[in-house]
Design brief:
- With 458 residues, this protein is of the alpha/beta class.
- 25% of the residues lie in helices and 18% in strands.
- The chain contains 14 helices and 18 strands.
- The strands form 5 sheets. It has a 5-stranded parallel sheet, with helices on one face. A 4-stranded parallel sheet has the order 10-9-8-14. A 3-stranded antiparallel sheet has the order 4-5-6, with no helix packed on it.
- β12 and β13 form a beta hairpin.
- The structure holds flavin-adenine dinucleotide (FAD).
- The site of flavin-adenine dinucleotide (FAD) has 36 residues, from α1, α2, β4 and α12.
Length: 458
């Protein structure tokens, strides 16, 4: 950032990772300028405020953010409690965003629609590294403004770009015209959105934690509203992956989620359809007919798409990125989290070096840094932004020594490579392995108790 030292650093998104980045920038004496598309900080989490996190508070808060908050007399929630999404906002993100140091640098209702280099498109190379960035914002009143900044940290998550229901990465035939019959990805079926689900035929599509959460909530609804029928379609040959590692899961709440789901399917409360890759949707007055690739059909009133998310790369079109061709994460991170090979929930520790792109001083962090991989955890994101901000501040040493500010209990786990089939190319170099450097692969995170990604499915 040498040439542009006096310009601010743009942070895209005021989710937990964007706000953590801002806290680290302030600690380093750099000037954050935070753009949030939603009406307030944590706008994506607001959509799933009724869902309980499976990691306890102590893993969900960033150290620099906590330092800022504590200076204002804020009291930390109980570190071992599991917050709901709503509590993460009310007890942590909202107080953080309200601090004068953050609030004065946060613009809400400000959607970033493009990032580029000042006066240069992607093809221009001369003086590129020393040319500031331009971030284009569309404000909620329709006004369009360009901001010139020294660096950009994209922490905009993936919530707003869900994967389509169709199996080939494209919308299923008829999916767009059946939009009225498709809910949000994590509806509050027993609360805010109850009326749309009570006594209806609900088809949940997908095989991840979102599906598990929604199915379990629907089972609760069906107890009170017995006419509610719960259908569940997964494209794989079984739902074993969703049931997870049970007692072997490093996060007990996550393990219990899968085990409860397994019992509900066994009891017949949830009607499971395996090998059901969605090919078509046909909206009718009486509901929607969902067709599978093999010709089977299911009738429902509403479809819940739990098909995962993908990063919005359109806004980054004028930047020079280096992304893994499959996962759409930074190239070196991709193989470490590729869902084809990983479901273990752990990842090699990584920071600025792994997250760098050919366009210097531009970083994708947080949920979006994982591209299409679903296993991101906040604790990983907080370490990413600590390292990235150190790099932007010119503190290469702090950036490269990836500190794992993670608690003692089994989080920084080493396991000779047996809990997850990490491809050989993924072995981190020693500089990135940081505090846990060891001759054998060192993985951090919370083991799920599962040993393979999709490649392990029969
Ligand atoms: C249901 C659910 C449960 C989860 N549970 C856990 C858990 O227990 N433990 C854990 O560690 N992780 C969990 N995660 C994963 C992850 O930690 C969360 O998704 C987390 O919210 C990611 O934080 P983020 O800051 O990267 O992105 P987000 O929280 O998605 O924040 C991104 C922000 O950017 C804004 N934005 C988007 N596009 C733009 C734009 N173009 N311009 C400006 N602003 C923009 C959004 O409005 C949003 O406020 C869970 C995720 C989900 C969906």
């Amino acid at each position: 950032m040498d040439s542009a030292k006096n310009l601010p650093v743009a942070v895209i998104g005021a989710g937990p990772v964007g706000l953590a980045a801002a806290a680290h920038l302030l600690e380093r004496g750099l000037e954050p300028l935070i753009f949030e598309a939603g009406p307030s900080a944590g706008a994506a989490i607001e959509q799933w405020r009724h869902i309980r996190l499976f990691s306890p508070w102590r893993f969900n808060m960033d150290a620099a953010a906590v330092r800022l908050l504590e200076d204002s007399g804020w009291e930390s929630p109980r570190p071992t409690a599991l917050p709901y999404g709503g509590e993460l906002i009310d007890e942590y993100l909202a107080p953080l965003a309200a601090l004068p140091a953050i609030n004065s640098r946060l613009q809400t209702g400000a959607r970033v629609v493009a990032v580029t280099r000042s006066g240069m498109d992607k093809t221009h190379t001369r003086n590129r590294e020393t040319t500031p960035f331009v971030v284009r914002i569309v404000h909620e009143n329709g006004e369009v403004r360009d901001h010139t900044v020294a660096a950009v940290i994209d922490a905009s998550g993936t919530w707003s770009t869900r994967n389509p229901l169709g199996t080939a990465g494209l919308p299923a035939i008829g999916e767009n015209s059946a939009a009225d019959r498709i809910s949000s990805s994590l509806p509050d079926v027993t609360g805010r959105d109850r009326a749309s689900f009570a006594g209806r035929r609900v088809l949940v599509v997908g095989a991840g934690h979102s599906a598990a959460n929604t199915l379990i909530s629907l089972a609760g609804l069906a107890k009170e509203e017995p006419d509610t029928r719960i259908l569940w379609a997964v494209r794989g040959p079984s739902a074993e992956k969703v049931y997870g590692g049970g007692g072997l899961d490093g996060l007990p709440a996550r393990g219990q989620l899968g085990s409860r789901l397994r019992r509900l399917v066994k009891a017949g409360t949830i009607e499971l359809h395996t090998g059901f890759g969605v090919a078509s949707l046909k909206a009718l007055d009486s509901g929607v007919t969902v067709g599978a690739v093999d010709g089977r059909t299911l009738e429902a009133d509403v479809v819940v798409p739990c098909t995962g998310f993908r990063p919005d790369l359109d806004v980054l079109r004028e930047l020079r990125l280096d992304l893994d061709p499959a996962v759409e994460a930074p190239r070196e991170l991709g193989p470490l989290i590729d869902p084809e090979f990983h479901s273990c929930g752990t990842v090699a520790p990584h920071g600025a070096k792994l997250l760098a792109h050919p366009d210097k001083d531009f970083y994708i962090v947080g949920m979006k840094s994982y591209g299409r991989a679903p296993t991101f955890l906040l604790a990983t994101g907080y370490e990413q932004v600590r390292s990235v901000v150190a790099a932007l501040a010119g503190d290469r040493e702090a950036a490269d020594i990836v500190q794992l500010e993670l608690p003692e209990t089994g989080v920084c786990s080493t396991d000779g490579g047996t809990s997850c089939d990490v491809p050989a190319v993924a072995t981190p170099d020693s500089a990135e392995a940081g505090c846990c450097a060891a001759p054998e692969p060192v993985l951090v995170g919370f083991p799920t108790g599962l040993t393979h990604g999709r490649s392990g499915e029969v």
